[in-house]
């Protein structure tokens, strides 16, 4: 089935009074189905070798799992007193693992599949079966292969001035002084540059379309509810909103692809690379729709926290600035007369951005340790397997919360302290900021480049003063909220930047 057809079909065929009857009937059906699912899941029994069960009913797991996942998982370990426990999400068995051998088995087990786990337990990407969900393994592999091409040294070198150009326009749109919320303004900036890097110039040059796409992806986030994830086939209001937003994103992306193909005009961007490979159109749409949101969310969150942490730690801000100034004086001496800051930064070669910024590397690493509230999700698509001696049946879901390693005081003393000088943990899989074992981030090269370029331009362009809504300096800066599993934003207004432009762009 191709659910995109569902919405127009409903609008076209359901008369108004029938629609209102449906509005009453649907919640009733939803309730009955939910009741059946919950009752059924509670009846499941525990077998020999299975992990300890969470002593909570299914009704008491769904809300906390989606709304306060960090607290929920921490409570699970506490209530069971075990390093591995299980609970039921409706009819799905979910096993949560922790500890050194638990995470080693988790990241290396052959049968554990990321896409299948993500599909059921997360569900925030646009859901278009065959395009962004229900993708066959071969199509996913092809998208990953194209992502590697999109990050070749040649492509990334081309992207350096383009990212700086976009970032400069966005910074300029903030004015010469004022106050910004880093958790709104910086993700918007990263969204713009991600559209540039992963799609085409026609979309990235159109500020209104970029804003529309961002709003649609935000709608997809907010309409990801327990019902839309666990019962995606039920026409709940959140599912219909998701469907509508997905269809709109699809239309925008599809229109841009068609226009490029029909024009026959070749341009220097990622869409052209995809078109030139003559891939199936669904691969191109899936690449852009899926990676755009995956990339922009992670880089946006990381950049917000990175710049916020630098705002709260002037000594690290100075070190970062000194590192970039040193590269500027080495590479931009000839171009600097009369050239803008973005042009000077663009004259630093890719090799230096990638390999000669140890301070930025440390800052990125520490930011990801503290402010990446990820819970890795997998489904066992192979035969029964064992994690830390505990049986994981075929078809079961398995999770590993990154807090288990990144906020572990034994591995990272005083874990909420931002300290890029920390010694690296020697424990097995002691740092998983870019994944581990058989699942490593495939967009790492692009993500790091964007983080470095945008942070460098921002720090050298703006004088930043971190304040709360009363104008006082927050000391210490607020902790990342790990219960907010996408953005880990602090409470609204607790962290703002007063800025003053110091470099004329
Ligand atoms: C700061 C930004 C980013 C961070 C911190 C990050 C982190 C991660 C992590 C931790 C994983 C493994 C997840 C798991 O084990 O459950 C992952 C996977 C992945 N990332 Fe990223 N990521 C970032 C940006 C990007 C970007 C920009 C792209 C694409 C352009 C991307 C594409 C992917 C893909 C395709 C995978 C799945 C790999 C697979 O299925 O084997 N990421 N990322």
From TrEMBL:
Q: Name one Pfam family in it.
A: p450
What keywords are annotated for this sequence in UniProt? Answer: Heme, Iron, Metal-binding, Monooxygenase, Oxidoreductase
Q: Which cofactor does it need?
A: heme
InterPro entries the record matches: CYP450_sterol_14alpha_dmase, Cyt_P450, Cyt_P450_CS, Cyt_P450_E_grp-I, Cyt_P450_sf
Residue positions annotated to bind heme are 441
User: Its domain of life?
Assistant: Eukaryota
GO MF annotations, alphabetized: heme binding; iron ion binding; monooxygenase activity; oxidoreductase activity, acting on paired donors, with incorporation or reduction of molecular oxygen
Task: Identify its protein family.
Answer: Belongs to the cytochrome P450 family.
Q: What is this protein called?
A: Cytochrome P450
């Amino acid at each position: 089935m191709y659910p995109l057809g569902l919405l127009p079909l409903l609008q076209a065929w359901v008369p108004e009074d029938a629609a209102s009857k449906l509005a009453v009937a649907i919640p009733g059906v939803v309730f009955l189905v939910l009741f059946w699912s919950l009752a059924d899941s509670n009846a499941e029994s525990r077998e020999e070798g299975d992990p300890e069960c969470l002593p909570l009913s299914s009704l008491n797991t769904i809300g906390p799992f989606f709304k306060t996942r960090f607290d929920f998982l921490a409570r699970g370990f506490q209530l069971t007193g075990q390093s591995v426990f299980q609970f039921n999400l409706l009819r799905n068995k979910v096993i949560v693992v922790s500890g050194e051998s638990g995470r080693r088995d988790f990241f290396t087990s052959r049968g554990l599949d990321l896409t299948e786990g993500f599909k059921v337990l997360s569900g925030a990407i646009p859901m278009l079966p065959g395009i962004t969900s229900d993708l066959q393994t071969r199509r996913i592999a092809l998208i990953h292969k194209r992502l590697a091409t999109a990050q070749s040294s040649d492509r990334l070198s081309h992207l350096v001035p383009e990212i700086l150009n976009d970032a400069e326009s966005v910074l300029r749109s903030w004015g010469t002084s004022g106050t910004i919320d880093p958790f709104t303004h910086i993700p918007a900036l990263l969204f713009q540059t991600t559209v540039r890097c992963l799609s085409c110039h026609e979309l990235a040059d159109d500020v209104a379309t970029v804003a529309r796409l961002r709003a649609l992806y935000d709608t997809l986030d907010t309409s990801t509810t327990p019902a839309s994830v666990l019962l995606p086939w039920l026409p709940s209001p959140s599912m219909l909103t998701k469907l509508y937003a997905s269809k709109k994103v699809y239309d925008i992306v599809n229109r841009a692809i068609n226009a490029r193909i029909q024009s026959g005009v070749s341009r220097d961007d990622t869409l052209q690379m995809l078109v030139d490979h003559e891939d199936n159109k669904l691969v191109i749409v899936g690449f852009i729709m899926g990676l755009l949101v995956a990339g922009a969310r992670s880089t946006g969150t990381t950049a917000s926290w990175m710049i916020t942490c630098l705002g709260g730690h002037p000594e690290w801000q100075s070190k970062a600035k000194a590192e970039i100034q040193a590269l500027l004086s080495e590479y931009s001496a000839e171009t600097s007369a009369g050239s803008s800051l973005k042009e000077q930064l663009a004259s630093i070669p890719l090799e230096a951005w990638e390999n000669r910024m140890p301070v930025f590397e440390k800052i990125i690493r520490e930011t990801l340790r503290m402010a990446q509230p990820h819970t890795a999700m997998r489904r066992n698509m192979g035969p029964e397997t064992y994690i830390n001696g505990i049986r994981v049946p075929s078809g079961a879901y398995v999770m590993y919360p990154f807090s288990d390693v990144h906020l572990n005081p034994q591995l990272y003393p005083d874990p909420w302290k931002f300290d890029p000088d920390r010694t690296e943990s020697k424990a097995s899989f002691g740092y998983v900021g870019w994944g581990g074992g058989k699942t490593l981030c495939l967009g790492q090269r692009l993500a790091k480049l964007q983080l470095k370029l945008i942070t460098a331009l921002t720090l050298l362009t703006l004088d930043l003063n971190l304040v709360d809504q009363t104008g006082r300096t927050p000391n210490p800066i607020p902790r990342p909220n790990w219960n907010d599993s996408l953005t880990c934003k602090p409470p609204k207004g607790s962290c703002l930047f007063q800025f003053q432009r110091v470099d004329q762009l």
